[in-house]
Amino acid sequence: MTGVFVTIEGPDGAGKTSAIKKLERMLKKNLQVDLIVTREPGGIPIAEKIRQIILDPKNMEMDERTEALLYAAARRQHLIEKILPALEKNTFVLCDRFVDSSLAYQGAGRKIGVEAVASINQFATEGLTPDLTLYLDVDPETGLNRIQKGRTQAELDRLDQESAVFHQRVQHEYLKLAEQFPERIVTINARKGLDQVVTECYQVIKQKYADKFHS
Ligand SMILES: Nc1ncnc2c1ncn2[C@@H]1O[C@H](COP(=O)(O)OP(=O)(O)OP(=O)(O)O)[C@@H](O)[C@H]1O
Ligand SMILES: Cc1cn([C@H]2C[C@H](O)[C@@H](COP(=O)(O)O)O2)c(=O)[nH]c1=O
Question: Which residues bind ATP per the record (predicted)?
Answer without folding.
Answer: 10-17
